[in-house]
Amino acid sequence: MTYKKLPELDILRIVSILIVVILIHIPNDYAYSFYIDLEPYTGFFLHTLGIHVAMGSFAFISGFGLYLNKKNRNIDTFEKLGAFLKKRFFRIFPLYWVALILFLIFLGYSNMDFMYLLAHFMGLQIIVAPIFGPPILTLWFIGIIVIYYLIFIFLSFLGSIKRIIPASIAILFLFAFLNIFFGLVEYRFFYYYLIFIAGIIAANIYTSPQYNRIKERIINRQKVIPLIIALGVAVLSFILYQFLTQYCFSTFNSEYGTTHLRLILDQNPGFIESAIAILSVDMIIMTYIVFMISSCHFLIVAFRLLLPKCNIGLIFSIIAYSTYCVYLFHRVFLILYTEILMDIFDLAIYERLEFNIVLLFVPFIFLFSYLIQKFSDWVLKLPSKLKSKKP
């Protein structure tokens, strides 16, 4: 069976990048009092958890997407390994290297230690970050994804999901060992690792014959049943999400005096306490992902029942196509936009009452990112096109 691209995941990807740009970076950089003026719980809900659910969603989608592609399962030959590495390399690194150069120029990283810069160049900064210091803003997540992809190769070699699950747990303990005894592997690797594995497991369930038989039986009996199930799951997951959020907020504050995982881990609470704190946030991320996917599924199915001839998935696919470039370049875009507004139009965009004008630039970030991604894909495909035209 061939599995089409899921619009639910495209929407989740789009919402996640909007959280990063609109809820995290723009308020942080252009409205310093925005979160200060909010209630502590509201700030925790929007900002602290915002970055976790956004990055966690990206990790989940990565794991799900990798396993969903049948060619990525059972990478047990050098030919399969080479094809996988080639595809992932050209998908990640060329644009990542462009972003890295721009960050060195525009964000003041030009004096970075050469060895640390080399680690960034190779996408391995997360491994050595505890030795050299915090990795480059934004690009730290690319380092995490690179490591996750390398782990996926080993897990894929194992084949069966029954082997993948215990092996993934063993790998987690291996990286924890490297962190505790050798001071390697930055803490953010552990935030989203289990979410990445959950994406692999979810894709395995989604592609399983048992799941497809159950889905076909439900659809054949009554088309409205998937709507009811999706709505029910969305409501229950949202309630659980709210409960877990409030529980973590009160628990973290009472036990550690902060709700930021990094500050909690800086207190060296111990392995078990650290694991519980990370797992608590992971549970929040997973309930958010379930809520988003089930809600989007409900809306998409309902829309298709009303307008069966409209390809709504294509719209979200086009927008989601640009999200990787949006993530890589949005900081640089905002810096350039800031210079234009301040130097040419003389706007005080750092004032609370005027920073909203920055939001007007968000659609242009998506547009420019879409064009950059298109151009990149065209350049990467050019050698094969020229080769095919040769007599």
Tags for this model:
78% helix, mainly alpha, 0% strand, globular, 391 residues
Number of strands: 0
* Helical amount: over 70%
Q: How confident is the prediction overall: mean pLDDT? A: 88
- Note the beta-strand portion: under 5%
Shape designation: globular
What Rg do the Cα atoms give? 22 Å
Q: What distance lies between the first and last C-alpha atoms, to the nearest angstrom?
A: 37 Å
* Biggest sheet descriptor: none
What can you see in these coordinates?
The protein starts with 6 loop residues before the first helix and ends with a helix. The chain is mainly α and 391 residues long. It contains 15 helices and no strands. The chain has a domain at 321-384. It has helices spanning 7-30, 40-68, 78-106, 114-122, 125-132, 140-158, 161-182, 188-206, 209-221, 225-256, 261-266, 271-306, 312-320, 323-344, 362-389.
Topology:
Blueprint: H1 7-30, H2 40-68, H3 78-106, H4 114-122, H5 125-132, H6 140-158, H7 161-182, H8 188-206, H9 209-221, H10 225-256, H11 261-266, H12 271-306, H13 312-320, H14 323-344, H15 362-389
Helix pairs in contact: 1-2, 1-12, 1-13, 1-14, 2-6, 2-8, 2-12, 3-14, 4-5, 6-7, 7-8, 8-12, 10-12, 14-15
Short description:
This protein has 391 residues and is an all-alpha fold. It is built from 15 helices and no strands. The chain has a domain at 321-384.
